[in-house]
């Protein structure tokens, strides 16, 4: 199972995401659930590049991305990223509840 924790700031802005595990719905390299989670996370990280996120992908099946501080003019981007990830992950949980665990934590 893939576990994803999205942490939001006080204004529903992206603070961090941590993902670990494997969906195990198909052999490695052929798992559409792993691929979907990967695409959502990679797109979010790329979208956050202007706010210099701290990203750790030290091992396969693990990712953390944190934005500990940001300029006020980046708030909308961080809010959009949080909404994008939440909507995408909720859709995957609905379709593949045995493969994805998604939680949101407000700081």
TrEMBL record:
CDD domains (alphabetical): Prp-like
Top-rank lineage group of the source organism: Bacteria
Phylogenetic classification of the source organism: Bacteria, Pseudomonadati, Spirochaetota, Spirochaetia, Spirochaetales
Gene3D superfamilies: Cysteine protease Prp
UniProt family annotation: Belongs to the Prp family.
GO molecular function: cysteine-type peptidase activity
Keyword Cell cycle in record: no
Protein name, per record: Ribosomal processing cysteine protease Prp
Alphabetical UniProt keywords: Hydrolase, Protease, Ribosome biogenesis, Thiol protease
Database matches in InterPro entries: Peptidase_Prp (IPR007422), Peptidase_Prp_sf (IPR036764)
GO biological process, one term: proteolysis
